[in-house]
Design a protein that fits this description.
This protein is mainly alpha-helical and 123 residues long. 46% of the residues lie in helices and 7% in strands. A two-stranded parallel ribbon has the order 1-2.
Length: 123
């Protein structure tokens, strides 16, 4: 799990200042994640869902695509990318009905320049 978290967040590490997770065993390597991303790592108290911000809402959205009966180790990279794309382009009330992509990559977002640089290196 640590490798996947690092892989997904590494290109955005300059903006990842903190990571907050629940107390599941999947975050046993939290020190590795924090060190690689140079971010503080926090754990929410058990049964205190409000301490994880929009985490619980995101879980609910993800479960619309992957119900609890579906084992996460059976999800393909293609499926994951498709759901990621759909969720990041879904308007959210908490964002003034903008999408996460609009907020994060919009014309005023500083991450746009770094993302372009990353893409240019890949191409």
């Amino acid at each position: 799990m640590a490798a996947q978290v690092i892989d997904r967040l590494q290109p955005l590490a300059a903006w990842v200042l903190t990571v907050t997770s629940d107390n599941g065993t999947e975050f046993a390597s939290h020190r590795r994640i924090a060190r690689r991303l140079q971010a503080a790592f926090y754990f929410a108290r058990p049964y205190a869902a409000w301490q994880r911000g929009s985490h619980e809402n995101a879980n609910g959205l993800i479960r619309q695509y992957f119900p609890k009966s579906r084992r996460f180790d059976t999800i393909t990279e293609t499926e994951l990318r498709r759901v990621e794309e759909q969720l990041n382009n879904r308007p959210r009330r908490c964002l003034g009905w903008r999408t996460p992509n609009e907020v994060f990559f919009g014309p005023d977002a500083p991450v746009v320049d770094i993302w372009r640089q990353q893409l240019e290196r890949l191409l």
